[in-house]
Design goal:
The complex is a heterodimer of chains A (352) and B (306). About 2% of the residues of chain A have low confidence. Chain A has 352 residues and is an alpha/beta fold. Chain A starts with a helix and ends with a strand. Chain A has 2 domains: 114 residues, Response regulator (Rossmann fold), CATH 3.40.50.2300; 190 residues, Response regulator (Rossmann fold, 3-Layer(aba) Sandwich). Chain B has a single domain, classed as ABC transporter involved in vitamin B12 uptake, BtuC. Chain B has 12 helices and no strands. The longest helix of chain B is centred in the N-terminal third of the chain and has 30 residues. The model of chain B has no long low-confidence stretch (mean pLDDT 92). The chains are: A alpha/beta (352), B mainly alpha (306). Chains A and B meet through strand 7, helix 7 and helix 8 of A and helix 1, helix 11 and helix 12 of B.
């Protein structure tokens, strides 16, 4: 008797369950690296926790998903399992996500740092270059040799934009400053990135900035007793004596806003490129070696950027060869920023 | 290039070459006994992770380094079970060991990415560190670099002057004759394999204990394969292994400094340099050499006796 009824009980339980949780929005996140890396994916996961805190929302994530084929399988799986919203947080997830998005029109897809979208797939990113400009001001104020090192990942517009903004910020407080770039072609390789930082220190740099996710460059700066600027999250734990500040991500408010809009039915697919005004990018707390007047001037500039009174890429801006690329007073358009493929004057390095 | 930059480059060369030196010496010891082990990359990763975890939990870098070596030996033991006990194909087993080691270290290591463990820091050796030029290059390093200086001469003397060393060489050159002479070939092969595993594990833990104090998946990024190639470049000689490892480390450090100095060469070309050099050195040394220096029975399995 009991055995015959069991499926019925189960069915009833499932039905009950589905009505109880019918309004729970399932939100999935796909990360390119492990969450525990205190870097890029860690920052995204902090954003996920803000979504989890919303009423009637459950979240889950898959970490260390390789870009390309693997990611398509993971995103497809999430869509099949009934996720309502899927965030994919790395550039290489763009085409796989677009493919899955076409198959699941009722699911909302959000892709970070790309440029393709559709009816139910939006792009988003943050204007981290605004934070880089501010960290550049700090580095420019702290350098004595007037040579700053920048350990960079890949020569793509996102990274080039960051280097340019950083350089303009440094030049704003220290006009003759030079920013030297070393490409590692890695996103997370502590050994290579640390060695790259050391190579910059050997040629006279006394502040090291970075655009990778490992704290390798921070370690190098700490060991040599010079200064460093971090990226993604506050990296001061790795180099307490060196860490001046960092350009950091703060995805929480944006993720919560998107999911709330989806719940309310007001969301639409778009290209979201938020900046300091929304708090999506910021700088980490200053190290105690940063003088009070430097801190104040940086915070004043931050307020100007957040209010929209100051645009980072305002002319005149010259390229490495000295040719004027942006006329005095003109502001670079978003389209040009997204396709940035030249260095501003003062950067020493190649684009390949 | 100013003298200061050159000195810094040479000091960085020694450091970058050290993990490869340990691994190359380990593979030389293994291959001298007649066992080809292509699992170096996976063994290094396991050694690096075990070293890192031990440092993190015990706070003792020395213990961590020893544990990293033992980790490498455990991985080598797997290769021994397959190839010495069951007479499996050494190439296939070695490749499997690399894939397995990479996965194993990734599986257990992922939660520890982004943590910092205590490790070895640089210190200047008294007297030796004050020697101009040479002191700056060789004797202002960390303890593991100094330790690595001792191994090539010891290994050389071991092969040349000790009964065990000569028996291992005999097991690699002509196992049948060695057995006929009444020596236990398989025991010597086990010894060479496990001893080599310890050295390879040392190489891995150098990366997570001294080169950086961090762990990440794939920390070795191909250094194990370079070590396998350098064994051939070194003609199975510990002294030449030193040259090979520093040559590779030097080019690796050099290309980054070339970028930092502001060269116009594309970085993609520069990043290729260490690997191009490895291929070129391998081709050149094999072409110049009149005979093959490999142990005659390298990769040939031996029947268990009776």
């Amino acid at each position: 008797m009991m055995r015959k009824c069991l499926p019925l009980f189960l069915l009833a339980f499932l039905a009950l369950g589905s009505t109880c949780f019918a309004k729970d929005l399932k939100v999935g996140f796909v990360y390119v690296s492990p969450v525990g890396d205190a870097g890029y994916s860690y920052a995204h996961d902090q954003g996920r926790l803000a979504v989890e805190a919303l009423d009637g929302v459950t979240t889950s994530f898959v970490e260390s998903v390789a870009e390309g084929q693997d990611s398509e399988r993971v995103i497809l799986n999430m869509a099949r399992k009934g996720f309502d919203v899927i965030f994919a947080t790395s550039y290489g997830y763009m085409d796989p996500m677009l493919k899955v998005a076409k198959e699941f029109p009722q699911v909302k897809f959000l892709h970070c740092s790309g440029y393709k979208n559709s009816e139910n797939m939006a792009n988003y990113f943050g204007r981290i270059y605004q934070a880089r400009y501010l960290t550049g001001m700090v580095a420019g104020a702290m350098t004595k040799s007037k040579i700053i090192g920048y350990v960079a990942a890949f020569p793509i517009p996102e990274v080039i934009r960051g280097i340019n903004a950083f350089t303009l910020g440094a030049q704003a407080v220290n006009p003759d400053v030079q920013v030297r770039v070393v490409w590692t072609k890695t996103w997370y390789d502590p050994a290579t990135e640390k060695e790259a930082a050391k190579s910059l220190l050997d040629v006279g740099c006394d502040v090291i900035a970075q655009h990778q996710d490992s704290p390798g460059p921070q370690e190098a700066a700490q060991e040599r007793g010079v200064y460093s600027v971090g990226y993604n999250t506050d990296m001061s734990a790795f180099a307490p004596k060196a860490h001046l500040t960092a350009a950091i991500w703060n995805w929480g408010p944006f993720y919560a806003e998107m999911v709330q809009q989806i719940k309310d039915g007001t969301w639409k697919s778009d290209f979201y490129w938020y900046g300091m005004d929304k708090g999506i990018v910021d700088i980490a707390p200053f190290g105690e070696m940063v003088p009070a007047e430097v801190q104040k001037s940086v915070l004043d500039k931050k307020a100007e950027i957040a209010s929209g009174a100051y645009q980072v890429f305002t002319g005149p801006i010259k390229d490495q060869a000295g040719a004027e690329k942006v006329a005095a007073g003109a502001v670079m358009a978003d389209g040009d920023l997204l396709g940035f493929n030249w260095f501003v004057q003062g950067v020493v390095g190649t684009l390949e | 290039m100013t003298p200061e930059i050159l000195l810094a480059l040479l000091a960085a060369t020694v450091q970058a070459g050290t993990p490869i030196l340990y691994a190359t010496l380990g593979e030389i010891l293994t291959e001298k006994g007649g066992i080809l082990n292509l699992g170096v990359e996976g063994m290094m990763l396991v050694g690096a992770l075990i070293g890192f975890l031990t440092a993190l939990h015990t706070g003792s870098p020395v213990l961590a380094f020893v544990a990293g070596g033992l980790g490498g030996a455990c991985m080598a033991a797997l290769h021994g079970i397959v190839c010495i006990w069951f007479m499996g194909n050494q190439v296939v087993s070695g490749l499997a060991l690399t894939i397995f080691g990479t996965g194993l270290a990734g599986f257990f290591g992922t939660p520890y990415i982004g943590r910092t463990a205590p490790g070895f820091d640089k210190f200047s050796l008294p007297l030796l560190g004050d020697i101009p030029v040479l002191g700056t290059i060789f004797f202002q390093q960390d303890a593991l670099v100094y330790f690595s200086f001792l191994i090539p001469p010891l290994l050389w003397a071991f092969f040349r002057y000790t009964r065990w060393g000569m028996a291992i060489r005999a097991a690699g050159e002509c196992p049948a004759a060695t057995r006929a002479a009444g020596l236990n070939v398989l025991a010597y092969r086990w010894g060479a394999l496990l001893g080599g595993g310890v050295l390879v594990g040392f190489g891995g833990s150098y990366l997570s204990l001294a080169y950086t104090h961090l762990w990440t998946n794939g920390l070795t990024s191909g250094r194990g394969w370079i070590a396998v190639a350098l064994v051939i470049f070194a003609f199975w000689k510990p002294s030449r292994a030193m040259i090979g490892a520093y040559l590779f480390g030097g080019i690796m450090a050099f290309q980054l400094r070339l970028q930092a100095m502001g060269t116009a060469l594309p970085s993609s070309i520069l990043l290729m340099l260490p690997y191009i050099l490895t291929i070129a050195a391998l081709a050149f040394s094999s072409w110049r050499s009149e005979r093959t220096h490999a142990p005659a029975a390298l990769g040939v399995n031996m029947e268990p006796s009776e």
